[in-house]
Amino acid sequence: MVYGYIRVSSDKQTVENQRFEISKFLRKKKIIIDEWIEETISGTISPQKRNLGKLIEKAKKGDVIICSELSRLGRNMFMIMSILNVLMDRGVIVITVKEGYKLGDDITSKVLAFAFSISAEIERTLISQRTAEALRRKKQEGITLGHPKGKSNSHYKLSGHEDEIKIMLNDGFTKTYISHYYNVSTSTLYSFMKKQKLYIP
């Protein structure tokens, strides 16, 4: 499947400029779009609250996503990199018309993958710091930390990471990315979030 993704941040903007740019590229490369995804929403909104999130969830190996530029995916580096990391790991090719990127199984993508790994390490450090601060605040407020003894269900593979997961959700990371990050299935993550009441609409 080949998807064309268009996003504008306000009603005053038009999707036609992006569609024109992508369509011109498609004619030149003789590519046909199977499905267009358009939305009017800020790039600061988490992907899971956008149509982009649905596209990320259903995209499979060999699929192609074409957009006018990387900034259409998100408005900050970490969000864009986390999205690209998930898509590249799944074998989905991302093409940007303005920058001329084709992110897949090539040397440029491998270099970017290395950059992603460094960014992921920075993310982990920042999340750990924020989690430690949050736990200290809870302790100072007299809130009991930890879980009742005797819980050995497989869903509790994520036990102890509730605060990290909540922070990641608030920061706009997709559930697919989070499950990949902790090396669990999305169903395990969903079930764990439901049990721990971590759902964020």
In whole angstroms, the N-to-C terminal distance is 28 Å
Q: Determine the fraction of residues in helical runs and give it as a percent range.
A: 40-55%
Described by the principal axes of the CA atoms, the overall outline is: elongated
Helix count, per DSSP? 7
Q: Which series of helices and strands comes N to C?
A: EHEHEHEEHHHH
Strand content: 5-15%
Structural class: alpha/beta
The poorly predicted ranges are 147-155
> Using only CA atoms, what is the Rg?
19 Å
Mean pLDDT across the residues is 80
Give me the secondary-structure topology.
Elements: E1 2-8, H1 16-29, E2 35-40, H2 51-58, E3 64-67, H3 77-90, E4 93-96, E5 102-103, H4 107-140, H5 162-170, H6 175-181, H7 186-196
Parallel strand pairs: 1-2, 1-3, 3-4
Antiparallel strand pairs: 4-5
Description:
Helix content is 48%, strand content 11%. The chain is an alpha/beta fold and 201 residues long. It has a 5-stranded mixed beta sheet, sandwiched between helices. Helix 3 (77-90) crosses helix 4. The longest helix has 34 residues, at 107-140. The protein is elongated and about 65 Å long.
Question: TL;DR of this structure?
Answer:
This protein is an alpha/beta fold. It has helices at 16-29, 51-58, 77-90, 107-140, 162-170, 175-181, 186-196, and strands at 2-8, 35-40, 64-67, 93-96, 102-103.
Features of the shown structure:
201 residues; five-stranded mixed beta sheet; alpha/beta; single chain
